[in-house]
Design a protein that fits this description.
The complex is a heterodimer of chains A (about 120) and B (about 110). Chain A is mainly β. Chain A has no helices and eleven strands. Chain B has strands at about 5, 10-15, 20, 25, 30-40, 45-50, 55-60, 60-65, 75, 85-95, 100, 105-110. In chain B, the strands form three sheets. In chain B, strands 2, 5, 6, 10, 11 and 12 form a six-stranded mixed sheet that branches. In chain B, strands 3-9-8-7 form a four-stranded antiparallel sheet, with no helix packed on it. A two-stranded antiparallel sheet of chain B has the order 1-4. In chain B, a hairpin with a 2-residue loop joins strand 7 (about 55-60) and strand 8. Classes of the chains: A mainly beta (about 120), B mainly beta (about 110). The interface of A and B includes residues 1, 44 and 114 of A.
């Protein structure tokens, strides 16, 4: 299957600093990527839909200025957690679908391995 | 809005036992349904899917049937192994946006 690579796998940062997480589709193009957040022992919550070449679409309750998303190419989306605080500590996961197959009903989404963010 | 409800875990079974993890959904229209598995420290992997009513998805001995009349997509396996220990997520995707709505996840622990 297709591969989505997320980097870094884990990061520890100081409160008040910013952290960038990368999500790359390695062997396919993705005009749309998705960013999820997973709290311990809880489900994945969709944060935003990242659209190549345009602004991201954020879910209700997600702060746009806090979680900056950039989707500059067909294979890369980045999530920047700005002015991080301990409550931002979480597991962040991205997913992507193959753009060439989006015409197919509900094509499989491929997930990155996730990034564990700890803010101290 | 659309939602997915899974049975609460953790589920603890002995090796070779029968597994059922219940999943029900609420959605407008006709969603596609998925089961994803998350092994410790890893991202999610698609386990199986079904795109229309009465479809049965199957993979690695796991099965789930899309039941429109009961709005369910229960995951089953006849004989679990220790290596099946993981967190299992039921999810739906409505329309063709690619967005997935997940259930809360069910932790499965299989003991030798």
């Amino acid at each position: 299957g297709a591969v989505v690579s997320q980097h870094p796998s884990w990061v520890i940062c100081k409160s008040g600093t910013s952290v960038k997480i990368e999500c790359r589709s390695l062997d396919f193009q993705a005009t749309t990527m998705f960013w999820y957040r997973q709290f311990p022992k809880q489900s994945l919550m969709l944060m935003a839909t990242s659209n190549e070449g345009s602004k991201a679409t954020y879910e209700q309750g997600v702060e746009k200025d806090k979680f900056l998303i950039n989707h500059a190419s067909l294979t890369l989306s980045t999530l920047t957690v700005t002015s991080a605080h301990p409550e931002d500590s979480s597991f962040y996961i991205c997913s992507a679908r193959d753009s060439l197959r989006t015409g197919t009903l509900n094509t499989e989404a491929f997930f990155g391995q996730g990034t564990r963010l700890t803010v101290v | 809005g659309d939602s997915v409800t899974q049975m609460e875990g953790p589920v603890t079974l002995s090796e070779e036992a029968f597994l059922t993890i219940n999943c029900t959904y609420t959605a407008t229209g006709y969603p596609s349904l998925f089961w994803y598995v998350q092994y410790p420290g890893e991202g999610l992997q698609l386990l199986l899917k079904a795109t229309k009513a009465d479809d049965k998805g199957s993979n690695k001995g796991f099965e789930a049937t899309y039941r429109k009349e009961t709005t369910s997509f229960h995951l089953e396996k006849g004989s679990v192994q220790v290596s099946d220990s993981a967190v299992y997520f039921c999810a739906l995707s409505a329309g063709n946006t690619g967005k997935l709505i997940f259930g809360q996840g069910t932790t499965l622990q299989v003991k030798p």
